[in-house]
Each structure stands twice: as structure tokens, then as C-alpha cells.
Amino acid sequence: MPSALPDGEPVPDDGSLPASALTGSADRPLGFYLHVPYCATRCGYCDFNTYTATELRGTGGVLASRDNYAETLIDEIRLARKVLGDDPRPVRTVFVGGGTPTLLAAGDLVRMLAAIRDEFGLAEDAEVTTEANPESVDPAYLSALREGGFNRISFGMQSARQHVLKVLDRTHTPGRPEACVAEARAAGFDHVNLDLIYGTPGESDDDWRASLEAALGAGPDHVSAYALIVEEGTQLARRIRRGEVPMTDDDVHADRYLIADSVLAEAGFDWYEVSNWATSEAARCLHNELYWRGADWWGAGPGAHSHVGGVRWWNVKHPGAYAAALAAGKSPGAGRELLSDEDRRVERILLELRLREGVPLGLLHEEGLAASKRSLEEGLLERVPFEQGRAVLTLRGRLLADAVVRDLVD
Q1: CB neighbours (10 Å) of residue 53?
Q2: DSSP 224
Q3: Cβ neighbourhood burial of 386 (10 Å; 0-12, 13-18, 19+)
């Protein structure tokens, strides 16, 4: 089941922000994340805030229905306009995630995007992405999205091997994600991503190489590759606890990461974030870069998180409770926190160190700077950028990124 929300102070009924949140906003890009919480089935490894029809039955009535979800989410987009007042920024990025956004009609996704355009305007070069399950789209659906303003799409491939997909409880058939890439290109999508997962119990090195090669053969310009994390409360965690499948292995994860980086680099993909590779700067996911660089974004939908000018808040999780709040003319926010300067400094180090450009050494305190020098001597940071005032991870450093970050934030 979905993980719990953090604690925080109450969000005002009207969603209003402290005046300080919009100070200097003209210098920060603004993005929107739209969360669609519906899935046809629940994957065994997933603890995202998503719900199947069975899980929603009897818990939200018509308010939780996906049939009228677009209108409910548009209500929050209109709330965002009221809260942000006369903020003149056009929206730079829109990302529709889930869940499975493409369980909604293509027209629903297009109407949600149109609401953002109507309320805020879109930047001339705005990036507009949706995630998609390979089995939930066809050429006509993709064409409708493209005609409606979407220009980037991300397909959940995970693996090219049937036995690996079975462990993950993924329902698509091998080969379908690759076909989707061709269909998206034919529909006119500028950028296409494939998501992969490595380290699934029962996956071999050969399985992982086959998945990478199948993904590359499809012709995307972006690949995301994530180590499988076993979250408590998921079906996969229960299966591991019962001894039905083995636990994931950190050494295997490291080996698979090295394989991924080698295969992708050979195919012309450069890493720009620890888990993301692109064929060019234009192919990077600009929306995710908003997160990693601490910009502003409004997260609309059940359980969605937002950040504007050092204020972070999150919505109630259940679709029924979310819709009820908006129907009553109230913010669906469940809690929020005001980040201190120190909080924001630490978050910059946590997130920006994962990027190819790294993090300025000037952000580090004395102990963190001393730790960075040790990391340099241990081969975890690149020397030339370090001499130019930035901490940039080496390939070995990427494998140990979490440990490096812990040292630098001291």
C-alpha cells in the first residue's frame, strides 16, 4: 500500500502561501506535476500513491472515480492560479505521472494541460511529458496527445525478459514498449524515454544486457535506469520475507549499474543524473531538473508534493478525500513545512551532487569541505572540476553517491 505522508503544519483552507514564497520568483522556473492515482493492477514492488478499482471500491464513491478526475484536478489548477496571484511566470514544464495517466482518456489529459495553458500560459519551449503504460496506449491515443500539446513521453519498460516482468508483476508483454517508441515517433513526439529497473530477483547479467539492448534498439533519446528498492508493505517485500524470491543485493546493483553506464555510453548516451542518460542536452528531462535544482513546482493530485520559494506542502492521499476538499472550495493540502536556509543548503547538496555538473564547493561547511577532499583522494570526485570549485562524482562516486552526500552535508 502507499507509504505514509510526512508530518507538518496545517495548510490554510485557501492554500495561501507566506509572502516570502514568491520573493525572487521571476528568477526561478515554474513547473507543474499532475498526479493520476489510478492503476489497472498494483505492481508487486510499488508503494506509490496509486489505487486500483478494487482498492477504491466503497471508499470514495463518485468522488474517487476516474471518470470525473480531470475536472477535479482542473479545480486544483485553478486554485493554484488564485494562490500564486499575479505571478507572471509561464509554466516551463508539465509532467503527468502516476499511477497510469494513460488509463484516462487522451482528451482528459489534454484538457488538464489546456487548463494550465489557460490559467498560466506555457513557455514557448515548454516541455510537456506524460508517463504511459505500454499496454494502455495505441497510435490513435498517442496522436491525440501529440495534437493536444504533449511533446515528450515516458514508457515504463522495466525489463525485456518475461520472467523478470513476472517477478515485478508487470502486465505488459516483452516487445510492446519498443513498439510504443516507434508509435510515439510516428505520432510526432520530439522526445521519448524508456524506464528500466535492474536488480530484480532472478535477473542475470545477460537479462540486464538484453533489456538495455532492446531499449536502445527501439530508438529512444533518453533512458532512466533505477535499482530495484524493496519497500516495506509491498507484495514483493512479503514474497521475499516468505522466502519465495531472494533479497536484492547491493553488489549486484553496483555491477548492473556499471553495465548500464558502459552500454549506454557506447550507444551515445551521456549520464546527466545518477540514474538518467540522454543523447543530448535537449533530450534531458527538464521537469526532473526542476526538482534537482530546487526550482518551483506545483504538484496537483492526491498525495502530490509541491515546492514554491522554500515552502513545501503535500496533498491528502486518498482520491475521495482530495476531491471532497476541492468540492468544498478548500485546499487539498494535508501539511506543509517552511524550509530554513540550512534546510535548503543541505537539499542543494543532496540533489545537485547527483547531477553531471555537480555542486559548488562553496556550499560546504568546514567539515564537509574536508570530507570532499578525502572523497577526491579516494577517487569518488573528479579532480579537474574540484580544482575549479565543484564537487562532481566519478563513476565510482556514483556507485557510492549516498555515502558521499552524507559526508558532504556535515
Answers
A1: 14
A2: E
A3: middle
Pairing of strands 191-198, 152-158: parallel
Grid cell of 383 as nine digits: 579532480
Give how far Cα 330 sits from Cα of 185, 213, 334, Å. Answer: 41, 49, 11
CA–CA distance from 248 to each of 59, 229, 234, 235, 244 (Å)? 35, 8, 14, 14, 13
Region 66-84: mean pLDDT is: 96
Query: Is the dihedral angle over the CA atoms 49, 51, 57, 60 positive or is it negative?
Result: positive
Residue type, 308: V
pLDDT at 205 (0 to 100): 97
Q: Are strands 152-158 and 359-360 parallel, antiparallel or unpaired?
A: unpaired
Each residue of 104-155: pLDDT tens digit? Answer: 999 999 999 999 999 999 999 999 999 999 999 999 999 999 999 999 999 9
Rounded to the nearest 10 degrees, how much is the dihedral formed by the CA atoms of 19, 20, 24, 26?
A: -40
Q: What percent of the chain has pLDDT over 70?
A: 94
Residues 360, 368: contact at Cβ < 8 Å? no
Among 207, 197, 184, which Cα is nearest to 227's?
Answer: 197
| 271 and 277 Cβ atoms separated by less than 8 Å | yes
Tell me whether strands 270-273 and 152-158 are parallel, antiparallel or unpaired: unpaired
CB 358 within 8 A of CB 234: no
φ/ψ of 167, rounded to 5, equals: -60, -35
DSSP E strands in 215-269: the ranges are 222-227
Reading the block at residue 1, the C-alpha cell is 500500500
Look up residue 129 and give its three cell numbers.
511529458
The pTM assigned to this predicted structure is 0.94
Contact 92, 117 (CB under 8 A): no
